[in-house]
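Anyone up for a design puzzle?
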């Protein structure tokens, strides 16, 4: 197997300072928020890589950098050997871009309400000068909708159906990879499973590679081949899905597991991970997880644990073994 995506030392910092005048009056320094910090990982072709972590851990920011919607502050993303940020050959950039698509959490916001579904789905092809030739109708059929739906508008569909339309559009340019950013978290629990099954079937059928982003480990359990766990913008653990579910080695991953199965009747987490997520503008020293970690020692607040290999798992914790 070869890596389709190679992410190395990827970081993204946002300037979240107040306007200059306010800063001068209030004597405030610039405020920089590190959303993603030194993330390195590889995604093998035709596999599903799941990125999990709480809200604000940097999942979407990584997804946007992978598809080229956001430039990295440091580090690089290579798609099939092409670095979108440093490549200068426009043809190569265009080719790499068309190989990778993104599906977002909110299927309504990402569909143009004034366009017919046919035009929405065909757009990735027609925008590049290609002919659609019944493409939208074929894809609608493939995502479990009706070819006759092509003449309708997005508001005529349910949330789950709209996400199917987004999936059809993502498939239109025959990508090799799709970044799926919480594609089912805005949907009803009953519809979630259907859409996940569809995505899983399409992945096999078309030999796709997914970067699947979710805050919910139970959602990725059946789909993921490999899982990366993010905490405050850093990768803290990465392992094959089976290994991670069997032996989570990082205390944060263990905490996520402890919370995951406890859902109430509406599919909501009854007991989310304990403790507050720290402020990413001034993260805790050493291991950023130490204020919440049940087994933290002195060293943890002083020294940041490097990522290291423990029995095939990559884990960043001083005590993991
Ligand atoms: N354009 C931006 N400007 C400033 N800060 C940003 C920007 N985008 C993201 N951030 C910050 O970066 C951090 C990571 O955000 P990101 O959206 O990647 O998290 P996430 O893991 O996708 O969270 P969620 O599960 O809520 O979608 C957050 O603290 C967020 O406030
Ligand atoms: S390095 Fe220390 S604080 Fe961080 S997860 Fe490991 S034990 Fe907990
Ligand atoms: Mg997000």
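Challenge accepted. My sequence:
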């Amino acid at each position: 197997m070869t890596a389709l995506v190679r992410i190395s030392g990827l970081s993204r910092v946002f300037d979240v300072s107040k306007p200059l005048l306010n800063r001068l009056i209030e004597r405030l320094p610039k405020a920089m928020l590190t959303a993603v910090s030194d993330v390195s990982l590889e995604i093998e072709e035709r596999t599903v890589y799941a990125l999990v972590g709480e809200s604000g851990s940097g999942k979407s920011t990584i997804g946007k950098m992978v598809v080229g919607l956001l430039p990295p502050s440091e580090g690089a993303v290579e798609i099939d050997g092409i670095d979108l940020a440093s490549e200068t050959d426009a043809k190569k950039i265009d080719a790499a871009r068309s190989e990778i698509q993104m599906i977002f959490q909110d299927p309504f916001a990402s569909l143009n309400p004034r366009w017919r579904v046919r035009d929405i789905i065909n757009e990735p092809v027609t925008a590049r000068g290609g002919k659609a030739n019944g493409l939208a109708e074929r894809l609608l059929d493939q995502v479990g909708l009706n070819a006759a739906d092509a003449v309708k508008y997005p508001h005529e569909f349910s949330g789950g159906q709209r996400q199917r339309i987004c999936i059809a559009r993502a498939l239109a340019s025959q990508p090799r990879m799709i970044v799926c950013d919480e594609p089912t978290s805005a949907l009803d629990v009953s519809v979630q499973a259907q859409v996940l099954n569809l995505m899983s079937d399409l992945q096999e059928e078309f030999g796709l590679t997914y970067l699947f982003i979710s805050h919910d480990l139970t959602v990725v359990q059946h789909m993921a081949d490999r899982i990366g766990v993010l905490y405050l913008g850093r990768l803290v653990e990465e392992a094959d899905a089976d290994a991670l579910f069997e032996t989570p080695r990082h205390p944060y991953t263990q905490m996520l597991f402890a919370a995951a199965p406890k859902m109430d009747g509406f599919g909501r987490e009854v007991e989310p991970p304990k403790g507050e997520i720290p402020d990413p503008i001034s993260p805790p020293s050493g291991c950023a997880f130490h204020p919440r970690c049940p087994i933290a020692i002195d060293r943890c607040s002083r020294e940041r644990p490097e990522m290291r290999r423990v029995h095939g798992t990559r884990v960043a914790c001083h005590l993991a073994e």
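A detail worth pointing out: The pocket of adenosine-5'-triphosphate (ligand 1) is lined by residues 14, 16, 33, 35, 53, 55-61, 215, 280 (CB under 6 Å).
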